[in-house]
Amino acid sequence: MSSRFFARGGDSDESSSDSEESLYSVEGEEPSEEEESSEEESEVEEDSDEDSSDEEGATGINRFLKSTAAKADEDESDEEKAVVIRSAKDKRIEELEGLIRLTENAIKIGDFIQGSTEFDKLVKLVPNIAKQLDGRTPKLFIKTLVDLEAAVTEAYEKQKVTPKKMNALNSKSLNAVRQKIRKLTKDEQYSKDVEAYRKDSEAFLKEEAVIEIPVPTKKTKVNLLLGDAIIDADDAGFEVVGPGGKTLIYTPESILKHLRSIAESRGRKGTDRNEQIRVMERLLDVAATDYQRIRVLLSLISVRFDTSTSSGGAMTVEQWKLADKEFVKLLELLYANQDQFIVIENAEEWEDDEKHPTLVAGTLFPIPGSIVGAAERLDDELTRSLLSIDPHTSDYVARLVDEGALYSALLRAQIYQERVRKQPGFEGQAERLNSLILRRLEHLHFRQGRLGSVLETNAWAELPEGLDSDVTPRALASDAEALVKALSNYLFAHSEGIQRARAMLHRTYWTALHDRPWEAKDLMLLSHLSETIPSFDIITQIHYNRTLVQVGLAFFRAGLIWESQTALQEICGSNRQKELLAQGVQVQRYSSLTPEQERAERARQLPFHCHINIELLEACYLVVSMLLEIPLLAQIGTAPDQKRRVISKAFRRLLDYSERSVFQGPPENTRDHILQASKALSAGDYKKSAELINSIKIWDLMPKALEIRTMLTEKIKTTGLETYLLTYAPFYSTVNLATLSEMFDLSPRSVSSIVARMISHEELAAALDQVSGAIIFRKGVNISRLQALSLTLSEKATVLIEANEKTLEQRTQGTANAFERQGGPGGRGRGRGRGRGGGPQNMGDRQGGQQRPRGQGFTGGALGRAIQS
Predict the structure, then answer these.
(1) Looking at the structure, do residues 707 and 632 belong to the same domain, yes or no?
(2) pTM above 0.70, yes or no
(3) In this structure, what are the phi and psi dihedrals at residue 236, rounded to the nearest 5 degrees?
(4) Mean pLDDT, residues 519-536 taken together
(5) How far, CA to CA in Å, does 128 sit from each of 349, 360, 364?
(6) Which of 780, 806, 840 delimits the end of a domain?
(7) 390-403 pLDDT, tens digit each
(8) How much is the pLDDT for 574?
(9) Do 432 and 306 sit in the same domain of this protein?
(10) Where is the PCI domain (predicted)?
């Protein structure tokens, strides 16, 4: 049956019917006339099929197979299509013709808005084409200019007769096109050609010179790179074949064409980036001039960066190291040819791929590229790589070693950019130099001085001896503090906005890290960033938070408790320390972040070696809050006005939760140690409190841990004394200073100074008798519960009145204030809610949002003064 299925003949239906007839035919029976005619027709069809192509004449299974001759023809046609490479000149001419066609069509249909847009593109394209024609204007453009002038003039005259038929915007575009065409026809560059075309258009167009395009002849020997070895192959030898059956021939003359084809295919879907990298590596080996090597290296570094995508993660370590080596090689070539080539952004690209540019002695030839962009991308890719590695493994440490190579590349790029800035005509590159200096400052500001000096010294060791920097000379490598000052001072003088703000923050961070808290605080106040930081980008806000925290830690190490709590309160007062410091993404239960926002937030994270220890930060904040809150809680029982004062809400919340817990076990973590130490301190047991605080192992991470523990012990003794006096003052008439000195293991002079400070701040109603060495307490009037509630009501009413006045002023837009200044109905200068001095009542309590020290916030109004008297 299979042989009958594959029998020769016409269609499958006809062959099957014929076979059935032969099966059921009777022997000896002659065929009928119809059968004879069908046989004759089949013979004619067979003859015609033999004259046709092999594919049409194939029968049976051969009809489903493609003939080798047809396949060879298709391969040849595909190869011819693949080999055809249009020159840049042809592309420009095609683009010119397309813009002319679009402009003429738009003006014909009366769409002058689109016509104006296309005409502007056309005018911008003509100078580029004129460069390729040796400065001659394309005659097709002159013809188009004259034709458009006639068409626009005719439309303008019609519009005068019937002005209502064209809208205002289209009419405005018509006038604009008319003015542009008139200006171009009178221009010196085009006026002669326009007049020649108007005199004799046919003769003008016939004068078009024929430009001979050199056709590259096939060489008998070409360099073919196979693997790592360059071999010579003749016409009869083997050739390197790439994907799709294309023959890959790499010669110095074809380098620019290959680079252009690779540049045009970048970003397209399905592009094999690894193949592009291999091609450019071969082109780099084949390159014969420094210009070719520079062009290939610029493209190769860019393609290596394309292997990293926003969703695919960072570059591989191998690709990053190769890109770094090629970046260093590129800068070395630029240093060696510093009198011939210069790489800058926004430079005009060389359009002619068939010949190299002609260099003029004493003139720099600009090559489009970005040295600063490549250096910044190396930095960003290293950061992304570090973020993708577990910081607690040896892989992170091994990857962190590459930071030295990166810093050296940044230094090389800075020195090169300094040279670019000095060249006449390239002064606008100063802003790009600021970016490199800021990158260096970001790598130095969080390191101790010795580590920064090592990083700088190693970077200079990799550079040639002849290179030096004007901003940071080689002599500053051993002095990290002078180096940071030089970098930040340069940015203070030559930058503004975000760059200047970050330079100030990095300088402040460095100062606070090296235990100069007052200088760091002065820098923060001098910058005024606390007022304008919400208007900056998120990265700058993160650096502001980190600097603020470091200033607070510097005050803590110096033993300045109140200043430390003020600096740390803004960041540590919430549970978002990791998020605010860019050290982790806290996944909240009811988070409204989209996946894109979450990815962007993860990309803003800092590497692990830049982190500030969150546990250490929390320990410092809770300890300073304990030293301030415990005396305040002791004073609440005797001073009702202090009930509204809260220094640290986070500490109060933790303390309340700890007191409500039924079972108190031994402390297990840092927070438990501090809370139990707070309870012991409030009970007067300062020794147990100091023992619990000093047993926290987190202090070992700070420099001079022993001095930190000694300082905390002294602060706990002082706070214990204050708490004891505030708690038991109503029960004593006099207390001997020597007794207090013995109880809290303090010197009599220290006890006397503490008591004097509390009396001066009105925290303690007592007098200090220095002759007898005793404290004499004054018994005041006990305030009843009704009186305390009345004072609270009076304060709330005052706050409500002030809020109403503020709302009224906002709604009346200041007219009420002007009315009061003019006298108003109650006399000149009188205003509601004003005291005797013309200012709002209790301004001292709320001015600047600062809280006064303990004991100074109680006024109570008239009722309070009456009770106190």
Answers:
(1) yes
(2) no
(3) -90, 0
(4) 92
(5) 11, 21, 20
(6) 780
(7) 999 999 999 999 99
(8) 81
(9) yes
(10) 608-782
Residue 669 lies in domain:
615-731
Q: Summarize pLDDT for 139-159 with one digit per residue, the tens.
A: 888 888 888 888 888 888 777
Helices (H) and strands (E) in the chain, counts: 39, 7
Residue 221 lies in a domain: no
**What is the dihedral angle through the alpha carbons of 487, 492, 493, 499, rounded to the nearest 10 degrees?**
90
* H or E stretch at 119: helix 112-132
Whether the pLDDT of residue 454 is over 90: the answer is yes
**Cβ distance 345 to 368 under 8 Å?**
yes
Minimum mean pLDDT among 590-594, 700-704, 713-717, 833-837: which range? Answer: 833-837
Is residue 313, in this structure, part of any structural domain at all? yes
Residues 477 and 333 reside in one and the same domain: yes
Count how many Cα atoms sit within 13 Å of the Cα of residue 372 in the half-sphere of its side chain.
20
Position 106 in a domain: yes
Which token pair is 572? 């540590």
> Into how many domains does the chain fold?
7
Neighbour-count burial for 426-458, b at 16+ CB within 10 Å, e otherwise:
beebeebbbbbbbbbbbbbbbbebeebbbbbee
CB atoms inside a 10 Å sphere around CB 712: 23
DSSP 134-202: TTPPPHHHHHHHHHHHHHHHHHHHHHHH-GGGS-HHHHHHHHHHHHHHHHHHTSHHHHHHHHHHHH-HH
Least confident of 656-670, 761-775, 853-867: 853-867
DSSP for 17-51, please give it: HHHHHHHHPPTTPPP-HHHHHHHHHHHHHHHHHHH
Residue in the block written with tokens 């034709």: 147
Measured between alpha carbons, how far apart are the two ends of the chain, in Å?
Answer: 127
Rounded CA-CA distance 236/255 in Å is 24
Element (H, E) at 724: helix 705-728
Written as six digits, the tokens of 673 are 């140690």
In Å, how far are 383, 386, 752 from 601, measured between CA atoms?
14, 16, 54
3-state secondary structure labels for all residues of 382-416 = HHHHHHCCCCCCHHHHHHHCHHHHHHHHHHHHHHH
Shortest CA distance to 610 belongs to which of 392, 738, 442, 782?
A: 442
Q: Which of 173, 206, 239 is the endpoint of a domain?
A: 206
**Does one domain contain both 756 and 714?**
no
Q: Which of the pair, 544 or 832, is modelled with greater confidence?
A: 544
What the block records as the tokens of 568 is 């740390």
Report the phi/psi class of residue 735: left, alpha or beta, with left for phi > 0 and alpha for psi in -120 to 50: beta
Using CA atoms, how far apart are residues 206 and 198, in angstroms rounded to an integer?
Answer: 14
Buried b (16+ CB within 10 A) or exposed e, 42-72: eeeeeeeeeeeeeeeebbeeeeeeeeeeeee
In the chain, % of residues over pLDDT 70 = 75
Share of the chain above pLDDT 90, in %: 35
Q: Does 341 lie in the same domain as 297?
A: yes
Would 217 be classed as within a structural domain?
no
What is the DSSP pairing of strand 229-233 with strand 222-226?
Answer: antiparallel
> Above 90 in pLDDT, residue 610?
yes
Co-location of 445 and 324 in the same domain: yes
Write the CA distances from 724 to 50, 634, 639, integer angstroms.
Answer: 120, 8, 15
Q: Tell me the DSSP string of 535-581.
A: GS-HHHHHHHHHHHHHHHHHHHHTT-HHHHHHHHHHHHTSS-HHHHT
What is the side-by-side strand order in the sheet with 766-769? 734-736, 774-777, 766-769
327 and 441 belong to one structural domain:
yes
How many residues make up the chain in this entry? 869
Residue 413's nearest CA partner among 365, 471, 368 is 471
Q: How far apart are CA 424 and CA 428, in angstroms?
A: 10
